[in-house]
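S.,

Sequence below, as promised.
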Amino acid sequence: MYDVAVIGAGVVGSAIARELSKYQLELTLIEKESDVSTGASKANTGIVHGGYVAKAGTLKGELCIKGNSMYQKLNEELNFGYKKTGGLVLAFDEEDEKTLEKIYQNALKVGQPEEEIEIIDGDRIKEIEPHVSDQVQAAFYCKNIGVTSPYEFTIALAENAVDNGVDLKLESEVINIEKDNGYFEVETVNEKIKSRYLINAAGIYADRIASMLNTDDFEIYPMRGEYVVFSKSQSHLVNSVIFQAPNPKTKGVVATTTTHGNFMIGPNAEEIDKKNDVSTTFKEIKYIIDQARRSVPDFDTNRMLRTFAGLRPKSTRGDFIIEETEHKGFIQAAGIDSPGLTSSPAIAKKLVNILKDSGLKLNKKDDFNPQRPAIVVEKDEDFAGEIDHQEPKKNIICRCETVTEAEILDALSRSIPIKTTDAVKRRTWAKTGECQANFCESRIKKIISRELNIPVEEVKNRDEDYVPERLDVYELKKKLNS
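The prediction came back faster than expected:
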């Protein structure tokens, strides 16, 4: 019998599990995939938003600004990668400038300190972003915007939760839930799990989980966002996060740096039918490129590395759904779309308070360990690694990103079992460089084969039944150039 079971090991579920692991509780985190962070938490812009992005008086507005303030400490503890870069929202005409004033006033209402925000123009914009378009008339500047690696953050949260006693159940899709005698019985494809409290953090499938207990008074519909990632040769084009004045559907196409130094643009916003359709399309990628050039005109599409898409779990309520249901002990953490990544650590704290108010006794552990060491080791110019070196710390497996055998071995030895090359990628940044895994894929497979004692031909790139249709970047470049 668990005290609390959390369904969904995305960033919200993993943050909740870690927060609860600070207490003397029996906990489990249930995930249908073979790894954590395989849904929306894997594929998004990775922005730690300023509080201004959400309307004052909403849960999004309350929790975004609180979550933002927690990232620096979390990164010091968990070593997932976070940079406070600041960000600009650009105005290209008078209508946009009116939008900037509304953004500024909303920022003050949600509690953004006045010294962290201002509306700027002219030379000041160019000081911050020299490569921004000359057509920009003004900008809202927010100093506390940052960037993170969303999947590394989620992995770090889940890993630390497991290290502090959370029972992680992977490949455990939930197929039914019953409530009986004051506890919940969660049936997965593998087993039946009993828990006194149950949290629904199932992301795009949260309405499906809610329907199992007839608490589905909302629907989750997928909003697809597509992105383009460029090589680090384009990283000089942006120093911060560059937004465009928003409209009702989207915050506008963003141009940003990643924590690993790549230039990235996106997303668009497409409401789609299928909850697993993360394909990319020429029409939408062309739209993203054209829109991004309004902000930063001079990026080189010949330096594109890959396209990808993610699905935001939009709810019919239009705000985060964080509440206890009519079934005492069953709590929703649903409809967590943008700024869900930013808000996730604050959502976790709010969930703990809801559990406490519902009657869960919370006694803090004396031995909770908040620390989780980094997997990726920073390398300077004195690093003496080489390909096929006998020493794992110097044996370079991914030459584009200088990932060593030792880092891959570290990833494989952690408390979350992994078995695919994509799982290694999400932890070490291997496979993400200029050659897009042409050099390192086979080498990673050999290491996994050796360490897990399985035939190399059984090592998969990804553990998914559905493989999305992604644009071939070489063909995309040819089509754009023609």
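Residues 83-146+222-311 form a domain with the D-Amino Acid Oxidase; Chain A, domain 2 fold (CATH 3.30.9.10).

Coffee later?
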